[in-house]
Automatic annotation (TrEMBL):
<protein>
    <recommendedName>
        <fullName>DoxX family protein</fullName>
    </recommendedName>
</protein>
<dbReference type="Pfam" id="PF07681">
    <property type="entry name" value="DoxX"/>
</dbReference>
<dbReference type="InterPro" id="IPR051907">
    <property type="entry name" value="DoxX-like_oxidoreductase"/>
</dbReference>
<keyword id="KW-1003">Cell membrane</keyword>
<feature type="transmembrane region" description="Helical">
    <location>
        <begin position="72"/>
        <end position="90"/>
    </location>
</feature>
<feature type="transmembrane region" description="Helical">
    <location>
        <begin position="105"/>
        <end position="124"/>
    </location>
</feature>
<feature type="transmembrane region" description="Helical">
    <location>
        <begin position="44"/>
        <end position="65"/>
    </location>
</feature>
<comment type="similarity">
    <text>Belongs to the DoxX family.</text>
</comment>
<feature type="transmembrane region" description="Helical">
    <location>
        <begin position="5"/>
        <end position="24"/>
    </location>
</feature>
<dbReference type="InterPro" id="IPR032808">
    <property type="entry name" value="DoxX"/>
</dbReference>
<keyword id="KW-0472">Membrane</keyword>
<keyword id="KW-0812">Transmembrane</keyword>
<keyword id="KW-1133">Transmembrane helix</keyword>
Length: 126
């Protein structure tokens, strides 16, 4: 079993829980129409919101089957970075406790995805 198995399953669960409920409770539609379209992405906000959430679902599946992990992780990392600047940064660092809706969870997910992509670490050869 690969050393990244537990992390891949954990991130897959997080991505599934961050995407699937919104597909059924109007969350993705609200994110697209009431947020993305309102901040300048109209008329593409809804399509963009669905693309983001579907990419989370695809990434979760790829993490679980351990296929195309690097490209999926890179796309997800890019989405998380954009999310930090567009959504979370104005609320500061903390998700709970010292604040609300901050960047710390995205930061952790990015670090975990990098650890999954490079299970033996990143070496800089001279």
């Amino acid at each position: 079993m690969k050393s990244s198995f537990i992390l891949r399953v954990a991130v897959a669960i997080i991505l599934i829980m961050h995407s699937v409920p919104g597909m059924f409770n109007n969350g993705i539609n609200d994110f697209g129409n009431l947020y993305l379209n309102q901040i300048g992405f109209a008329p593409f906000g809804l399509a963009l919101a669905w693309s983001i959430k579907l990419s989370h679902l695809v990434t979760a599946i790829l993490l679980l089957i351990d296929k195309y992990v690097k490209p999926a992780a890179i796309i997800t990392i890019l989405i998380l970075i954009v999310g930090i600047f567009m959504v979370h940064l104005p609320d500061g660092w903390y998700v709970v406790g010292g604040g609300r809706n901050g960047v710390e969870f995205n930061f952790l997910l990015i670090a975990v995805l990098i650890a999954i992509m490079y299970p033996n670490g990143i070496s800089i050869k001279k």
